[in-house]
Amino acid sequence: MGLRCEGPSPVGVVPAGSCRETSGHRHPTDDYRSTVTRDPARLYLWSGLLWYGALRAYWVSLVVRLTIQLELPSLQLVLLGTAMEAALLLAEVPTGVIADRFSRKWSIVIGFLGVGGAQIAAGVVETFPLLVASQIVWGIAFTFRSGADTAWVTDELGGPDEAEGLILRLARRQQVVAIGAIAGGAVLGRLTSLTTSVVVTGLLLIGAGLLLAVVMPETGFPRPAATTSEIGDGAMSDAGPSDAADGGAGAGRGGTIGGGLVIATRGLASTLSAGARATLGSRSLRVLLVVLILSGLGSEAVDRLDIRRLGDLGLAELDEVVLVGVIAMAEALVGAAVLWLTQRRFGTGRSADAMATLLAASAIGIAVLGLVAVLPVAAAGLVVQGGLRQAAAPFATAWANANAPSTVRATVHSFVEQANSVGEITGGVLLGLVAAASTVPTAMAVSALLMLGAATAATRDRGDPGPSGAIELR
């Protein structure tokens, strides 16, 4: 006989009544389940690799399907991207709040299932309104996982110091996986059909989501407690006199639903407020927000105008989808190598220094792309700056993670992601206007200056988390 404890214990103490006696006989799957569920690092790595690979293969196959198979006009392609970006921007913070208030694990599961379902839909529907709907669902579902995965593994491992090396290790492996995923998606699409290639990526994510629902632990989640005022002002205000006489137990007969909604709403508002205080109250996080807004402003014009720039320099007319795939694989190779070298140079705990270096180098790459009128040199600048920017991304995650309180960790990550999105959307519009009013090289020169500004801002971080380390969530 032995004791088996069920249910998470957020403070590391097993609550009374949560343990029960079990027989000494073990089911054949117990050892396997125990190995998997007690190793959050392994779950974080394999699920992150599958997620990243499935998304990279999906986007390459989807672009081909939309442009060649369905022959969507340029305006509709732009509107599809706009719908997705809008969904990402609007849902990022609310879904982060939900993850912090209720469960990071189930937010991750919802993300896998929702994105997988949206990708299947994008692979089979053909009418434009349904394609738009699939992209909106994709964007919302994506934000459920965004930030929640990092928050989950950080608390399962015991803190940001334990998680930082894992975050960077995953990012390195993702760059390698991206190469195989892009090539694999292209081969599958050629051997079967574009629809099959897109649908398979969705099925993989749904299968992973179902598996995570079964094996994923959540023992480190800091569950917020309802305050007396929430209970008294929420549930009890909806209860009648007889319910109050029963100590509130009778509220379920008339006010449980209404009171529960009030409590839930106040809880979400409390989490949102605490997340905002943690983000804006930390000098280090404020610096990170500035860095990401500036880098977002500088990056979007490059992403939109890079192929056009190479064409202006005399690149032979190639299938644009093939060209995008080749560039993506080359950038992934550069990103993996640069990330490995940067981690060896800076180690852990110096994310701001690493980002400053990578962003400054990417500014040089953007300047080479925009200002050097020699095709091979400009193409090299494009690939190098893309790899450098990819290598910088996990350091931004580690930077935010190190300064985010456990209780609102996912919400802080959401605010950080939203800063980057705001920068990208704004930069795409403003620098697009600059390119239209002058030239593409001028827009890229401005992009390089903005990226250099982001690198300079990163040097202003002194690692002072400020009041964010003392945020209390009720």
Structural class by sheet pairing and helices: mainly alpha
Mean pLDDT: 82
Taking pLDDT < 50 over at least 5 consecutive residues as the criterion, the unreliable ranges are: 1-37, 226-254, 465-471
Oligomeric state of this protein: single chain
Rg from alpha-carbon coordinates: 24 Å
Largest beta-sheet details: 2 strands, antiparallel
The number of helical segments is 17
> Considering DSSP H and I runs of 4 or more, what fraction of the residues is helical?
over 70%
Can you lay out the helices and strands and say which pair or pack?
Blueprint: E1 2-5, E2 19-22, H1 30-37, H2 40-69, H3 74-101, H4 104-124, H5 128-145, H6 148-157, H7 160-191, H8 194-215, H9 228-235, H10 241-245, H11 256-281, H12 283-312, H13 320-346, H14 351-371, H15 375-402, H16 409-437, H17 440-458
Antiparallel strand pairs: 1-2
Helix pairs in contact: 2-4, 2-6, 2-7, 2-8, 3-4, 3-5, 3-11, 3-16, 4-5, 4-6, 4-8, 6-7, 6-16, 7-8, 7-13, 7-15, 9-11, 11-16, 12-14, 12-15, 12-16, 12-17, 13-15, 14-15, 14-17, 16-17
Outline of the structure:
The chain is mainly alpha-helical. The chain is built from 17 helices and two strands.
